Amino acid sequence: MDTRIPPSPQVWPETAEYWAAANEGRLLLRRCCDTGRAYHYPRLHSPFTGSFNTEWFEASGTGTLYAFSVLPRAQPPYCIAYVELAEGPIMLTNILTDDFDSLRIGQPVRVQFVPSADGQRVPMFVPC
Amino acid sequence: MSLKGQAYIVGAYEHPTRHAVDKSLGQLHAEVAAGALADAGLSWQDVDGYFCAGDVPGWDAQGAGPLSMVEYLGLRLRHLDTTESWGSAYLNHVAHAVQAIAAGKCRVALITQAGRPRAEKVSPEASHRQQAQTAAEAQFEAPYGPVVTNVYGMCAMRHMHQHGTTAEQLAWIKVAASHHAQHNPHAMLRKVVSVQDVLDSPIVATPLHRLDCCVISDGGGALVVVHPEIARSLTRPLVTPIGTGFAVKHLNGGYFDILASGAVQTGREAFAQAGVSPSDIQYASLYDSFTITVLVQLENLGFCAAGEGGRFVADGGLISGVGRLPVNTDGGGLCSNHPGNRGGMTKVIEAVRQLRGEAHPAVQVRNCRLALAHGTGGQLGARHGSATLILEREA
Predict the structure, then answer these.
(1) CA–CA distance from A56 to each of A12, A29, A31 (Å)?
(2) How far is it, in rounded angstroms, from Cα B112 to Cα B315?
(3) What is the pLDDT of residue B282?
(4) Across the interface, do B143 and A100 touch by the CB < 8 Å criterion?
(5) How many domains is chain B partitioned into structurally?
(6) Is the Cβ of A95 closer than 8 Å to some Cβ of chain B?
(7) Does A88 touch chain B if contact means CB atoms closer than 8 Å?
(8) Are strands B208-209 and B219-226 parallel, antiparallel or unpaired?
């Protein structure tokens, strides 16, 4: 299994809730209440309308693999990926697996939270 | 409305160095400025507009950067434009220079670009990390280790998945670049390579091989864009921008197509403004940070349909005199030069060489009157600036 320890995110006041939830094992998304669309990455205004009429909600933590790339010569090797969440938006993440060769675009994945360098947990994904 | 005749590119100069251990970044800017002005037949004192981007020394320092460069170069200006969009910036600067000249803001516009990452031993990854630390998306990206190569790797992976594109087809883009580079004495990689050579090189970020990547080089280039009255007083061939486009493609809150770059918009706008279509273009300079970059731009600009790029580039499709569209006849970023990890300037310069008939005879497109240059600055699989220029040589 991948043992890479990710660098820790530099948390902004407007995203503190996202990272606090991650430490509790919950993936939060932000929703634009005017359009009903979920978006990522989170920010307090809607990237679709500019309105601040937005809210947090808890995502299902499931999605499908949209694209990925493995760095085979990194120590240890790791897989970067875009995952298309069940709620709509695509997010950048890592895929954790013992078998990079078996990964296929379109396959279902689910969230798992991994401690970063300073202990802050960050959402990554594993094949279902 | 076509921009034809509103301004002319009369000076173009590419620094011959690829490894500038004994030159400062400022000196490189000064040398390319002098080179382009000499090429135009103009002097330092003629310049009244200056265009530069984030590669000038001191960019990050308050009150320095572009202002410092103006002083260092010794320019006396009426117009300054520091629009930054990484490797695409310089194509955008040409468009801005045309606008500034047409608006009477300046008459002789100088655009410079330079970098020395090879001398400084700074990897594109390190340079990317340095830039991204304070950006809004950094906390949602840095933990996952995007290092340029793997972000482009995702584009290639998706293209293969969606369209059945093969590693062999991507390799043909490098093969074409190497065929051109063998004729360029300044190119970093002059050896002609085969599809098999590309496939045999180590995987850098799946599915991209080392030879799918551009070189890391020092150097730079400069352009001089002038008012029509000045252009007609000089002896250089009359190369005029007739269509331009600029766009910022970003991740749009998580709703994006990784294979639709900003070129979809900029190509449409530039071709509409120029009143020509992709099949009219005789030569194209396409940003080639990686082989996949070229493939996506060919499709997005309309040289072929989405998903057809692999077949378009295969079997020498991009080799001058052989294929259907000569691309990057200087060897491009893949084999010749990618100064400062910013390839847009050299893209314009080779297009100007082709239109003047000054490319190497082995790669010169016969009677080249219409050329396109396109830059993708930033990252194809994430946020980037796209800039398209369509250039015409007047009879």
Answers:
(1) 16, 6, 6
(2) 36
(3) 98
(4) no
(5) 1
(6) no
(7) yes
(8) unpaired
Mean pLDDT over residues B349-359, rounded?
Answer: 98
CATH code for the domain in which residue B45 is found: 3.40.47.10
Residue B166 domain flag: no
| B278 within a domain of the structure (yes/no) | yes
Percent of chain A at pLDDT exceeding 70: 98
Q: What DSSP character marks residue A15?
A: G
Write out residues 156-195 of B within 8 Å (CB-CB) of A.
156-158, 161
Q: Note which residues in 335-394 of chain B have CB less than 8 A from chain A.
A: 381-382
- Band (A1; pLDDT cuts 50, 70, 90): low
ipTM: 0.98
- pTM for the predicted model, two decimal places: 0.97
Helix axes B344-356, B89-102, angle to 10 degrees: 60
pLDDT digits (tens, 9 = 90+) for B52-106: 999 999 998 877 899 999 999 999 999 999 999 999 999 999 999 999 999 999 9
Alpha carbons B247 and B240: distance in angstroms, whole number: 21
| Cα–Cα distance, B90 to A69 (Å, whole number) | 30
**Per the domain annotation, does B200 fall within a domain?**
no
